[in-house]
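Hello forum,

I keep getting stuck at the same step: I have a sequence, I want structure tokens, and every attempt I make locally crashes halfway through. Rather than fight my setup again tonight, could one of you with a working pipeline run this one for me? It's a single chain of 268 residues.
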Amino acid sequence: MIQTLCPACGTTFRVTPEQLKAKHGKVRCGKCQHVFNAIETLHDAQTEPAGVAPVEIQPEFDAMQDAAAQTQVAAAAIPAPVVESPDEPSRQEAVPLPAFAIEAAPRPRGWPWAVASLLPLMLLVLQLTVHYRVELSVLAPDAKPALRALCIPFDCDLPLPRLSDLVSIESSDLHPDTVQKDQLVLVATLKNRAPFAQAHPYLELTLTDSLDKAVVRRVVVPAEYLAKEANQARGFAGNGEIAVNLALKYENAETSPATGYRLYLFYP
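Reply #2:
Ran it on my machine without issues. Output:
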């Protein structure tokens, strides 16, 4: 039999190896309630000491229960950890990567395609500019130097506008020359109703018979009806007028069946 001694009151107790092993030797005295380590006061005894009544020991269940209760209360105060299912999305906000860890995606080199697609458009605009250079010079007179420079590689020029609808014959008369019997005198007034200068128009004079059939036709170029001091390069001034007084040689003037005439202006 194994006995142990309470260090507080001196009471001797019987213990078994199983009891000591279960609580690691920690027991409570059944007499004075003192808790002690029974292993430290163990001794062998074949018989119980005389005059001492055997007292059963109580292993330290109360102390362990109190400690367990305190542990449960403390555990209840601490919120249980939340375990997220691997199938559910995390509720935590994503942590941004540091700037050095983010690699910029390589930009696609789209400029060759952009240039290739713009090239036909640029060529089309260039062709239209050359084709409508006269109209553009009217709409933007300050652009004339640039338009002239543009014409150099294309071997073109920048002529004056030729809008025949804005040029008119205000009056005209055709009669024989009183001095030269083989001449006819054409008197007319031309007007440019455009607000900008235009090229001088050509004139077409047609002599007709009594049935209004053409007998003879002649084209009069600007150099023939303009005054000698006129600057043809400057063109027909905007909102300007030109007085035509032109003698035309006509050998059959006296015997001609022509009894009338028609006068037109045009641009070749």
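Residues 47-57, 59-63, 73-94, 96-102 have pLDDT under 50 and may be disordered. If your local run keeps crashing, start a new thread with the error log.
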